[in-house]
Amino acid sequence: MCSERPALRNALFVLAAVLVLLIPHTAAAQPEDRRLGVGILVGGFSGLSAKYYFGLSKGIRSTDLHLSIDIGSEFSAMGHLLLERALPGSPLVFVTGVGVLFEHTKDESRTGASGTVGILFVKHRFDVFMQVFPQVIFVPDIDTLLRWSVGIRYYL
Hints:
Number of helices: 1
Largest sheet: 8 strands, antiparallel, barrel
Distance between the termini: 34 Å
CATH class: Mainly Beta
Order of helices and strands: HEEEEEEEE
Oligomer: single chain
Shape: globular
CATH topology: Porin
Number of strands: 8
CATH architecture: Beta Barrel
Strand content: over 45%
Strand order of the largest sheet: 1-2-3-4-5-6-7-8
């Protein structure tokens, strides 16, 4: 994304990283007190999504894992530890987190750090989400990425 405009890409990356640090973190309601959600996400990162709530009322409340597979040519995975803040009287929840990214293609493997900033709409046993993922690749070369996805999860 924005590979032809590195200044724009870097500015968006810095903005997303600052948002991760600025959003206050307090407890949020998980979907009907369920712990495991599974679903799909589409966008700059498309594939399967899973989220697990630890059952804690404060601090790091959950983790997510996103997988993208293109049979025979590419595999990507990223996971985050998440902090959440519910909007009082609303089904909306702000999410921020930090994690790792791993990608493998037939030509190379890449590893780096991944952040996430997003919003969830929580209703019954579902959440619909939109997330932005600022990422820094460390191996094999240093690079920055800014990806986004929208998705839906069902809680078991």
